[in-house]
Design goal:
single chain, 453 residues, two-stranded antiparallel ribbon, 1% strand, globular
Length: 453
């Protein structure tokens, strides 16, 4: 109880409250009349089949491995407890998103100062590229929270090697992997981080080895049941889910590289394979599930690689577009409320906020990255690894603001670090001027005394 009172301070309550109000209002006004489409409809359909058919299926009685299981399972749990209303799921995401803002506050406060933490938390509460993801049924909000919590756990792990923190790191890594199928990559980044912490003598080598082995064991033990289930369904090794083939084929095809197709709207991003490459997609039935999904995914990958080899001269331009597009200040995501209901005043307000706040954040984050590299790199090493991984992932697959979402909290924290550095620099200069003034006054006093004598 005492620990809870320590955590529930005025800044925490204020940031959480502001973030929650912003998100709930946006859901009530900006996302009014929203209903699931695209990926959100896929997640909801799986959730319904979990409840009604007792099957992790996209189509009734046809088990799927096309999506990671945690988010559909959470939707199913909420629907089972409170009824099949997507508003309740979006309210849950409002709470998750508000908790992310509090984590951002804690992280920036612990890294820099209380004022930096307040800036970071309040900025996160009203930053559009965080709250727009709390008004649909995609997995972004959950993944953002889990990844930031994992980073925060590692920050404290390098200060105190407690078993509770080590186990929590392993559990969070599993939850990340069950939300998106890139867990092995995050595990690899964790092992790189642990190795560097050992080399830098930030963590003793016995602690590094103990932490790494424990996290690996927890990860493998908790992921194994789902991987075994996938093997029983597909007779193939699928750790979490397939889907890379669909992404690659949608990002590497003639239409995506044609600036005249749809007036360049899809240039350098993604088109669903049934539209971009129907000659490949039509090989598979509409009721493709389980083994068919694995075969389809491998076929899509092979077709995408073949297109790259044939069109190697176009690759530098496409890869550059992928990098540039991930830093857009707007979003083309069809299922976002700002694009579903573009004429609403709330949508126009949010788009304007994106266009104003996002470039400012990028500039501050870039400065924060530069000024923290020298003295705070140990504290922020995992940030740097995740940011680099996200950029590489966007370049290889394709870049859109939604794929930037996992690093938005890190950009805010780096931005707070830039303001902290500027405030520190100003304070140092003020102290230097004060010392010079005192020295000058003392010199005058000495001169006067000598003259009197």
């Amino acid at each position: 109880m005492k620990r809870l009172r320590t955590l529930l301070t005025a800044p925490v309550i204020g940031i959480f409250g502001l973030a929650l109000v912003v998100r709930v209002l946006y859901n009530m006004i900006g996302a009014r009349d929203y209903y699931p489409l695209h990926d959100s409809l896929t997640y909801q359909t799986i959730a319904f089949n979990i409840l009604r058919e007792h099957c992790y299926c996209l189509l009734p009685n046809l088990p799927t491995v096309d999506r990671a299981p945690l988010w559909p399972a959470i939707i199913a749990a909420i629907y089972g407890a409170l009824g099949p209303h997507d508003r309740t799921v979006r309210l849950f995401l409002c709470i998750v998103g508000s908790a992310t803002c509090v984590l951002i506050y804690f992280f920036a406060r612990d890294l820099f100062s209380k004022h930096a933490g307040l800036f970071a938390g309040l900025f996160a509460a009203i930053y559009p590229f965080l709250f727009v993801y709390d008004a649909w049924l995609y997995s972004e909000s959950l993944y953002i929270f889990l990844l930031l919590a994992f980073c925060y756990t590692l920050y404290y792990l390098q200060r105190t090697l407690r078993w509770s923190l080590i186990l929590l790191s392993g559990v969070l890594l599993v939850l990340l992997s069950l939300t998106r199928p890139n867990g092995p990559a995050i595990l690899a980044l964790f092992l790189i981080w642990a190795f560097v912490m050992g080399r830098a003598k930030q963590i003793p080598w016995p602690g590094v080895i103990r932490s790494a082995l424990t996290v690996i064991i927890v990860f493998l033990a908790l992921i194994a049941p789902w991987t075994i289930r996938n093997y029983e369904v597909t007779h193939a090794f699928v750790p979490t889910a397939v889907g890379d083939g669909k992404v690659l084929l949608g990002a590497y095809n003639d239409k995506i590289a044609d600036p005249h197709y749809s007036d360049g709207y899809y240039l350098g991003i993604w088109i669903i394979p049934t539209e971009s490459t129907p000659q490949v997609a039509d090989r598979f039935p509409a009721n493709c599930a389980g083994p068919c999904e694995v075969t389809r995914d491998n076929t899509y990958k092979a077709a995408a690689v073949q297109w790259m080899q044939v069109n190697i001269s176009k690759m530098p331009y496409l890869l550059a577009l992928h990098f540039i597009n991930m830093w857009q200040t707007g979003s083309q995501e069809a299922d976002l409320a700002i694009n579903r209901f573009p004429d609403r005043p709330a949508s126009r307000l949010v788009v304007t906020m994106m266009q104003i706040m996002t470039p400012v954040l990028f500039a501050l984050a870039a400065l924060g990255l530069i000024v923290t590299l020298r003295r705070r790199w140990r504290d922020l090493l995992f940030f740097y690894l995740i940011i680099a991984f996200t950029i590489i992932q966007c370049i290889i697959l394709y870049g859109i603001p939604r794929f930037r979402a996992p690093i938005e909290p890190m950009l805010i924290i780096l931005g707070a670090g830039a303001l902290w550095w500027l405030a520190t620099l100003r304070k140092k200069r003020s102290l230097l001027r004060q010392k010079k003034s005192e020295a000058a006054a003392e010199a005058v006093t000495v001169s006067v005394e000598k003259a009197i004598k």
